[in-house]
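Chapter review: from sequence to fold.
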Amino acid sequence: MPLDFTAIDFETANPSSASACSVGLVKVRGGRVVDTASWFIRPPFGHDWFSEWNTRIHGIDESHIVDALLWSDQLSDLVAFAGDDVFVAHNAGFDMGVISKACEASALATPEYEYLCSLQVARRTYTLDSYRLPVAAMAAGFEDFRHHDALSDAEACAAIIVHAAKRHDAADLPALAAATSVRIRSIGTAAVLAR
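The token string follows.
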């Protein structure tokens, strides 16, 4: 099985995990980036306000999402891009929480996906003072990207996984997970049943 996955990153409008306002997606096939996508999202009602703190971090405010579709109208695009891939994200619990909470706030079923955390993989691959995305990405040879831009962060995350797989001589995500003792987890119905 080749090194295939979709890296994903969300930015949120406020402290609510349901407040996705931007997503970046990077499709990797055989360890190479073959497609990317990103777009703004209008968060679900009740979660659609912007905190000054979040805007200061990512630079997104109400003006960016004025013409954006709601999460409920864009979920199908996200699922179509990812297909049956395993998601990879840096601090994946956050990004998978965004999917779950935005779906819950929109009265939608959370799609079923497996996922692997590049933060945990980085901790088992590199010896660094910090494992924040910019530092881990630099260790993987991916530098000079716009941190907190969803697409740039997803590209950095993909670079970490590809580099870590080479370092561990892992041909695919299950082999990388085994080599680093990091579990591939899941969201959606499968995750609920596994509890």
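Two observations follow directly from the output. Strands lie at 5-12, 20-29, 32-40, 87-89, 113-117, 185-187. The chain has a mean pLDDT of 95.
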